[in-house]
Design a protein that fits this description.
The chain contains 13 helices and four strands. By secondary structure, the chain is mainly α. The strands form two sheets. The chain has a two-stranded parallel sheet. A two-stranded antiparallel ribbon has the order 3-4. Strand 3 and strand 4 form a beta hairpin. It is globular. The two termini are about 30 Å apart. The model has no long low-confidence stretch (mean pLDDT about 90).
């Protein structure tokens, strides 16, 4: 906030998110399109240059806008961060699932929103939550597209955010989980590149939203990630844990479907891509793919038991 108590507003244009095709697809596809339509040559080079220029111009504009953002200091605000996570014993995961399952059952809602309406609500509450900590309303696009060539490289991905243009694509219908998937990608769009930070901000924004649909998505994500940790990548064990979780049938089906949508991790291509992605995360100061599951659940556990956190944990 400013000295007179007025909340600051930062606007990131995200112009590329309104293009009819994903900006990175335009850059990648321009040379191919040029060769097909005009046989390459100088005209093809010009077309490729125009596409790259448009992409770079949008990315540079967003980079400039993002310089005004006051990002959250996770260690100070929550008492936890990528390099400060308290281990959770197995029994803590079991107790967590037992505690959350009845809440999910009691507050279960079948109501679904369109993706556009979901994205608008998610963006509103994510903006609100971040502003409650930083004093800044970071205004970004709420556009979501359904396809990007990135899906071909990562077929098991649920969604993706181009960190340069802020373009977000959601590849699959993830049912009850969709608000959290969108909130995760929108956290990247608002300048939080680390996967753990995106997971946490999505959960906290939705769980404090007061919106039954969004809150349900956050709790489903927490239970789902806890069950994944308990199953330790074993799909059969995961199925047994879900069946014995005490969740109502609709929630059990949602958990099992989400596990399949996220990839089984058994194909050779998927194994190679997961290893590459894990290494990329390590190179960028993260703990690897485990940040989605163990990191996320440990962060919330650390936050809820931290004597130094400035924020108050939401009701689980």
């Amino acid at each position: 906030m400013t000295a007179d108590g007025v909340r600051q507003e930062v606007r990131i244009s995200n112009r590329a998110t309104y293009w009819p095709v994903a900006p990175i697809d335009l850059v990648v596809g321009a040379p191919i399109l040029a060769r097909l339509l005009i046989g390459g040559g100088p005209a093809g080079t010009i077309l490729q240059g125009v596409a790259l220029g448009l992409y770079a111009g949008s990315a540079l504009r967003d980079w400039r806008d993002r310089q005004a953002i006051h990002r959250i200091d996770f260690r100070r605000e929550f008492g936890a961060d990528v390099d400060h996570l308290v281990p959770m014993p197995r029994q803590a995961y079991v107790s967590q699932v037992r505690r959350l399952a009845p809440r999910l059952n009691d507050e279960f809602t079948r109501k679904r929103l369109s993706r556009r309406e979901t994205a608008a609500r998610v963006d509103r509450h994510l903006t609100r939550y971040i502003a409650s900590i930083t004093g800044q309303s970071v205004r970004t696009s709420a556009e979501v597209r359904g396809f990007s060539l990135a899906r071909l490289a990562w077929p098991s991905a649920l969604g993706v955010c181009d960190i340069l243009s802020g373009d977000v694509a959601i590849f699959k219908d993830t049912g009850l989980f969709e608000p959290h998937v969108i909130a995760h990608e929108f956290s990247h769009r608002k300048g939080y590149w680390k996967e753990l930070h995106a997971q946490v901000l999505a959960y906290l924004a939705l769980s404090t939203s007061g919106d039954p649909i969004l809150r349900q998505a956050a709790r489903c994500e927490r239970v789902y990630r806890s069950l994944r940790v308990l199953a330790d990548q074993d799909i059969s064990a995961f199925r047994e844990l879900v069946e014995g979780s005490g969740l109502r049938p609709e929630l059990r089906r949602a958990m099992l479907a989400h596990r399949v949508a996220g990839g089984t991790g058994t194909s050779g291509f998927e194994i190679v891509m997961r290893r590459l992605y894990d290494k990329r995360m390590h190179l960028t100061g993260q703990n690897g793919i485990s940040d989605y599951d163990a990191g996320f659940t440990r962060f919330l556990h650390t936050f809820e038991h931290s004597p130094a956190a400035r924020q108050t944990p939401p009701e689980p």
